[in-house]
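This part of the workshop introduces the protein records we will be handling. An example says more than a description, so a record of this kind follows:
>
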Amino acid sequence: MAMNSMMDSAAEAGVNEAAALSAAACMFRSLGDPTRLAILRHLALGEHKVVELTAHLGLAQSTVSAHLACLRDCGLVTSRPQGRASMWSLATGAELLDVLAAAERLLATTGDAVALCPAYGEEASR
């Protein structure tokens, strides 16, 4: 239903439907990595430096920085300088949290189906 309303709104605004679908797919791909989701979840608690994220996630600084760059390029996070470091935060907190909450509700409804999906499930990524 929400995708239909998104497409209806796009059509009313004169937006190309194919472009709107492509943009939506790109956004979902940006959310399709467990590390990026973990970063977003942690940033939902408030601003953090890269060093804090690396300690929390147990990942290399270069890995966290690369994921933050992806999320920044997608417009999902932003940073501000603080001394020699940068403080990272959610760029669109309320909207992003709404999407993640909707995803959690959908996962609760579908159960293990997505994890077992032969095309996108856990076995497909191995």
About this structure: The chain has seven helices and two strands.
